[in-house]
């Protein structure tokens, strides 16, 4: 490796194979209980939970460690109502005209429709943006690399962190999403990645049976 400032690796104490297997299984079981939820309660969420989850997301690996993400936490009823109204305009167009039949058929088992009440009911919406330019420090304006991959990984960690805290989430992707730049006050060169809805599930919330169907290991991986 080329000469560069470095520090000893910490945080990886030795762990037996048995203990690793136990931890990996426990984590797998915990993550398998995560559901994409569309019925939220209006119960509020402590700010610290969201702060800690965002910091966990911000620990994600990223291209050249530029951390090309920005998260806007939307809690104000006015902003949530504006986001719902703008999203529903796009969704009505999507379901009525834009989506090809094949896409509508794929969504049918999930029961989704253009009504996005959860955007107002849930206590927290997190609008996630990818930054074309930036850098490791907030004042940087260098070129960023692997923005989509980096933001996707950070979003995965955010979902896992919120799940670990006991909150339900929904990945919502109205298309196009450019209205989020305006409502969230973000520059035009930041690309909305997705809108993560977070909160407690409503009492009596249901999930589509089809969403429980997960691929077995031999369909999702192979060893060479
Ligand atoms: N954005 C629309 C449609 C939609 C698309 C996919 I792919 C989904 O997995 C779920 C929904 C909506 O939110 O209803």
Question: Can you give keywords for this protein?
Answer:
224 residues, alpha+beta, 4-stranded antiparallel beta sheet, two-stranded antiparallel sheet, 6 strands, 40% helix, globular, binds 3-iodo-tyrosine
Gist of the model:
With 224 residues, the chain is an alpha+beta fold.
Describe the structure.
The chain is α+β, with helices and mostly antiparallel strands. It is built from eight helices and six strands. The chain has a four-stranded antiparallel sheet. A hairpin with a 7-residue loop joins strand 3 (133-134) and strand 4. Helix 2 runs antiparallel to helix 6 (147-165). The longest helix has 22 residues, at 77-98. The protein starts with 16 loop residues before the first helix and ends with a helix. The model has no long low-confidence stretch (mean pLDDT 97). The chain binds 3-iodo-tyrosine. 3-iodo-tyrosine is lined by residues 91, 94, 107, 112, 172-174. Residues 91, 94, 107, 112, 172-174 line the site of 3-iodo-tyrosine.
Major sheet size, sense and barrel closure: 4 strands, antiparallel
Q: What is the CA-CA span between the terminal residues?
A: 28 Å
Oligomer: single chain
Number of strands: 6
Q: What is the CA-atom radius of gyration, in angstroms?
A: 19 Å
What structural class do the secondary elements suggest?
A: alpha+beta
Low-confidence stretches: none
Order of helices and strands: HHEHHHEEEHEHEH
Pfam family, one: Nitroreductase
Organism: Peiella sedimenti
Protein name: Nitroreductase family protein
Keywords: Flavoprotein, FMN, Oxidoreductase
């Amino acid at each position: 490796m080329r000469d560069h400032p470095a520090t000893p690796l910490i945080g990886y104490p030795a762990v037996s194979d048995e203990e690793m297997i136990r931890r990996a299984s426990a984590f797998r079981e915990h993550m398998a209980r995560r559901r994409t939820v569309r019925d939220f309660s209006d119960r509020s969420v402590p700010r610290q939970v969201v702060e800690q989850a965002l910091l966990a997301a911000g620990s994600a690996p990223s291209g050249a460690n530029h951390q090309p993400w920005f998260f806007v936490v939307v809690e104000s009823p006015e902003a949530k109502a504006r986001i719902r109204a703008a999203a529903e305009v796009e969704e009505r167009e999507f379901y009525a005209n834009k989506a090809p039949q094949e896409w509508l058929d794929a969504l049918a088992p999930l029961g989704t429709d253009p009504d996005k009440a959860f955007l107002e009911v849930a206590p927290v919406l997190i609008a996630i943006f990818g930054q074309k330019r930036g850098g490791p420090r907030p004042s940087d304006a260098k070129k960023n690399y692997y923005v989509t991959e980096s933001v996707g990984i950070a979003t995965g960690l955010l979902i896992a962190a919120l799940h670990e805290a006991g909150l339900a989430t929904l990945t919502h992707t109205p298309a196009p999403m450019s209205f989020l730049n305006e409502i969230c006050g973000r520059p035009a060169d930041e690309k909305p990645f997705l809108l993560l809805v977070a909160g407690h599930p409503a009492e009596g919330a249901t999930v589509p049976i089809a969403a429980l169907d997960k691929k077995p290991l031999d369909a999702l991986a192979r060893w060479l």
